[in-house]
Specification:
Blueprint: H1 15-27, H2 34-47, E1 51-55, H3 58-68, E2 76-80, H4 85-93, E3 97-101, H5 112-118, E4 123-126, H6 138-148, E5 151-155, E6 163-164, E7 167-168, E8 175-179, E9 192-196, H7 199-209, H8 242-251, H9 255-273, E10 288-289, E11 295-298, H10 301-304, H11 308-317, H12 333-339, H13 347-355, E12 356-359, H14 367-383
Parallel strand pairs: 2-3, 2-4, 4-5, 5-8
Antiparallel strand pairs: 1-9, 6-7, 6-10, 8-9, 11-12
Helix pairs in contact: 1-8, 2-8, 3-4, 3-7, 9-14
Bound molecules: pyridoxal-5'-phosphate (PLP).
């Protein structure tokens, strides 16, 4: 057994990030500034979009996207039942109504047939989530969006490296949003980025993210001298700090190297677990690139003789940390009370949510760490 605990989702932070953060601290410019601008430019280039606006979380970015697209009370927004609560909360905070659809049992992505069933005359937008880093079926989604004249916000929290038919996710709709939370593929501690090809949406989001103050208000205390600003929107405090961008501006330059490191781990897990009575991630669809954010096993009591939570606890006792992504939206009491959603109405999301477990998958893992995860998983399943 390992002597130290393998914490799930540890980021790999290198010397360049440490030096850059120290540089920000000693320069005394901690808040939004030139490093945020550099990070935005690097992300825009990597993602192949015209505009990238940094914010302090993906949640904030999703919320601003809903507002910038003009969602109003009474508008319905379709999103998958299998996602993090932030996807639904963003819609609710914008005053609109989330409408849940089930997910595909193999890909865990939004179920296209169920989307069609849930479209009404009130539907204004759809938020596909590229779950675990696997791109959604964008061909079908684009058909639906065009047919019903809907707007689309892509939740790319897991999917910075994902491509669909040779095009990066995040620009199929009006807006895409990335997360740089500490466990994500590129990290800033907390952070997010709104992607768009529309100058109008980008400018609106930039203003809304900083209190609604007129553009470039962050420069008001810079060495250019004090500048007056005007408040032109009722905005939020969602801006990213230079301290965070100091990490991200270096992380983004290693995004492909880290992806390759995770791919090696992914392939080792696939090989090591092929003979076990658990489900590994479905094969990757042709002409797509999976961002390899979460490596999930489905541990089903009927097949394995062990429930998911028992499996996680057994791994924990062997010093291996794991995660659950996610218990689906309809299991949570606040949504049940407010919208009357029941888990049984979303049977695929319900089954996945009850049996899914995410194994450590980070560029920081050593070969020895991966050996330990494999040995522990095999030992626990064999024992059962
Ligand atoms: C699918 C999805 N959307 C949105 C978010 C919110 O990201 P953040 O923590 O950056 O706000 C997460 C976070 O894990 C997520 O998994």
């Amino acid at each position: 057994m390992r002597s130290s605990y393998l914490v799930f989702g540890q980021p790999l932070i290198e010397q360049a990030e440490i030096d850059e953060v120290v540089g920000s601290l000693t320069s005394a410019w901690l808040g939004t500034g030139p490093k945020v601008a550099i990070f935005e430019q690097r992300v825009a280039e990597y993602m192949g979009v015209r505009h990238a606006v940094a914010v302090n979380s993906c949640t904030a970015g999703l919320h601003l996207a809903c507002i910038a697209l003009g969602l109003q009370p009474g508008d319905e927004v379709i999103l998958p039942a299998m996602t993090f609560c932030a996807t639904a909360n963003a819609v609710i905070h914008a005053g609109a109504t989330p409408v849940l659809v089930d997910v595909d049992p193999d890909t865990f992505n939004i179920d296209i047939a169920d989307v069609r069933r849930k479209v009404t005359s009130r539907t204004k937008a759809i938020i596909p989530v590229h779950f675990a880093g696997r791109p959604c079926d964008m061909t079908s989604l684009l058909h639906i969006v065009r047919e019903y004249e809907l707007q689309m916000i892509e939740d790319c929290a897991h999917a910075i490296e994902a491509t669909y038919h040779d095009r990066r996710v995040g620009s199929f709709g009006q807006v895409g949003v990335l997360s740089f939370y500490s466990t994500k593929n590129v990290v800033t501690g907390e952070g997010g980025m709104v992607l768009t090809n529309s100058a109008e949406i980008a400018s609106k989001i930039k203003v809304l993210a900083l209190h609604g103050m007129s553009a470039d208000a962050w420069k008001r205390f810079s060495d250019d001298g004090y500048k007056h600003y005007e408040v032109v929107e009722v905005g939020f405090k969602y801006n990213m700090m230079d301290l965070q961008a100091a990490i991200g501006m270096h992380q983004i330059q290693r995004v492909e190297t880290y992806w390759q490191q995770r791919q090696r781990i992914w392939n080792r897990y696939n090989e090591a677990f092929a003979d076990l009575p658990v489900s590994c991630p479905a094969p990757i669809e042709p002409r797509t690139r999976h961002a390899l954010h979460l490596y999930t096993l489905l541990v089903d009591h009927d097949r394995t003789g062990l429930g998911r939570d028992d499996f996680m606890f057994a791994l924990h006792r062997l010093n291996i940390g794991t995660g659950v992504h996610y218990r689906p939206i309809p299991v949570h009491p606040v949504y049940q009370k407010r919208y009357g959603w029941r888990p049984a109405d979303f049977p695929n999301a319900d089954r996945i949510g009850a049996s899914t477990v995410s194994l450590p998958l980070s560029a920081r893992l050593t070969d020895r760490d991966v050996d330990d995860v494999i040995a522990a998983v095999r030992a626990v399943i064999r024992r059962s």
